[in-house]
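Sequence only, no structure available. Ideas?
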Amino acid sequence: MPLRRTPTSKPSPTPPARQPKAATAAGTASWRTVLRSRQQTHRLGRCLGLLLRGGEVVALFGELGTGKTSLVRGIADGLGAEPTAVSSPTFTLIHEYRGRLPLIHTDLYRLTAAQLDHTGLGDYLDDHTILAIEWAERWGAGLPADRLEIHLAHRLPSARQAVITARGPVASRLLLALRSRMSARRPTRVVRQTRVQ
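Reply:
I predicted one. Tokens follow.
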């Protein structure tokens, strides 16, 4: 009896490797998340602070009251500095906090581009200092090419939307690590039950 031949099919082509959802053009990557409380904003900053190695620039954008300073408090906490000491540097242009790494916190809200040239802010761009800049859009072209941008916006009365964009290789590695840390499950409290006799 002759063998029945099954039609042979060509092996299906291997699909191209999928790019991560966050990947975009020009060496940038973005991640969008909702921060439902001040505690979640602090946690995002703290996770970021724990990951910083020195030399990173965190550029903060957003309207008044969107949580920029709360986020910097979290960064200070993650760096081992006292978070309650962090305040908005609106009048004192630059605040410095000492932790595992020095954290320079500045607010450019009241400055013009011409005034920025005389602040000496560029002197803090080194391999061991963290620079957190509120109202970073005021610095314009002076912002370092490799930076982590965090855009905060009001979403609900107590919630904020954060769009985090990495520009450059150092910031891209930082963003990937931050997403991973933020999505990790927080340890839950185990309640032990005892048998009652």
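The beta strands are 28-35, 57-61, 94-98, 102-107, 130-134, 147-154, 160-167.
Hope that gets you unstuck.
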